[in-house]
Design a protein that fits this description.
The chain has 394 residues and is an alpha+beta fold. It contains 7 helices and 14 strands.
Length: 394
């Protein structure tokens, strides 16, 4: 028993001595480790801002900055280094961006990435010396649009962030956020929930109409103005009489629209096997057509080890006058390669077909399997209208 007690006492003494030695060691080494870590961090900052000197981390909690900004450092020479986290083809693309005191980019480095093609390692060189006003003029890399586009946008966020950190002001909202804010401000009764109206009639003087999902009214976009109309069709936004009349007429036109289904069996070959196909068709009381077209993109014709084909068609809705002029165009569904073929779901692409005819629709840029297939489907829509109007035979 005495031996057991002695053993326990000895063990306790040994542990106490070790703990004291460890504490002493840590007391001596902790400052050295911290200094080494600070030097490494400073070296990383100097990589993108070589003339920065020393750096001080900024408390971001008091600023409203772009969501991609995760850390920022103020340099001794008046410049900044901004750390960013964004998403390319996958999550976790981490960048470090150096910005000189004059607002020009000094360097961009990729700290971490799970991208597959490696463009994130070199693309930053293209952004050096750019400013907040010129950054978006830099081309993204074809075939790596998701990665390089995300990098360019994140570096723009860094430039905007330094303007704010320097005491300036800048609108950091996305285009979607600006639109949503304008719609909500014009018609508060909609509670921020709108659906863009798909035009099936020719409407003059109005660029777009957004319908409130709770049926409390609509907002008409005319240039940069947002004009609200209540559920009874009364213009409730202050504007001049001519604009109010134009908006009222537009709302009355779309409210009076009636459509009937068209049997497209005679137009479509049977069985249902062709690559391009009219899924459905309607005709308005004024004689316009609304067609839903099946288009062939990368999902059907493509596929490789990086981006397998989805096996899905692109579904397009297009409205045309009986004379063959496109009124509106919309991508309903697609499963094309994200960041490449998925451009077909961007209004900046499909909106190019608005107002086009069979004589000039091919002038729309189409540089991928997806976009070429999309354009082919639009061409088939013109042929379908001719057939349905009895002007041509299949």
């Amino acid at each position: 028993m005495k031996n057991l007690i002695k053993s326990i006492v000895s063990l306790v003494c040994i542990c106490s001595v070790v703990a004291v030695l460890m504490a002493l060691t840590n007391a001596f080494t902790a400052p050295i480790i911290a200094k080494n870590e600070a030097q490494k961090a400073n070296a990383a900052l100097l990589e993108v801002l070589p003339d920065g000197g020393s750096f001080e981390e900024i408390d971001l909690s008091t600023y409203t900055l772009p969501k991609t900004v995760t850390a920022a450092y103020r340099a001794e020479n008046g410049g900044y280094v901004v750390k960013l986290t964004t998403t390319g083809y996958s999550n976790g693309l981490i960048l470090m961006c150096g910005i000189r005191a004059d607002g020009t980019i000094s360097g961009v480095a990729c700290l971490a990435s799970t991208e597959t093609l490696g463009h994130e390692k070199t693309y930053g060189q293209n952004l050096v010396d750019k400013t907040a006003d010129t950054i978006m003029s830099v081309d993204i890399v074809s075939g790596a649009t998701k990665t390089t586009g995300a990098m360019r946008d994140a570096v723009r966020d860094a430039l905007n962030a330094t303007i704010i950190l320097g005491g300036g002001s800048i609108d950091i909202r996305t285009e979607e956020e600006i639109l949503a804010d304008n719609l909500a401000q014009a018609l508060p009764a909609a509670n921020g929930e709108f659906e863009k109206y798909f035009f099936v009639e020719v409407v003059e003087g109005v660029d777009a109409i957004y319908l409130a999902k709770n049926q409390s009214g609509a907002v008409c976009v005319v240039g940069e103005q947002f004009i609200a109309v209540d559920a009874e069709g009364n213009v409730i936004t202050e504007c001049d009489a001519a604009l109010a009349a134009s908006v009222t007429a537009a709302v009355e036109t779309i409210s009076a629209t009636e459509t009937t289904d068209i049997d497209v069996t005679a137009y479509n070959p049977a069985p249902k096997t062709p690559l391009y196909y009219v899924e459905s068709a309607k005709r308005t009381a004024t004689g316009n057509y609304i067609l839903e077209m099946r288009a062939v993109g990368y999902g059907i014709l493509g596929g490789d080890s990086y981006h397998p084909a989805s096996g899905e068609y692109i579904l397009i809705r297009v409205s045309l006058t009986k004379e063959g002029r496109i009124i509106d165009c919309l991508t309903l569904s697609q499963a094309e390669t994200d960041g490449v073929g998925s451009v077909c779901a961007d209004e900046k692409f499909y909106g190019q077909f608005d107002g086009k005819t069979q004589d000039n629709y091919e002038n729309v840029d189409a540089i991928t399997i997806t976009t070429n297939g999309y354009k082919e489907a639009i061409g088939r829509a013109f042929e379908a209208v001719k057939f349905l109007e009895g002007e041509a035979q299949e």
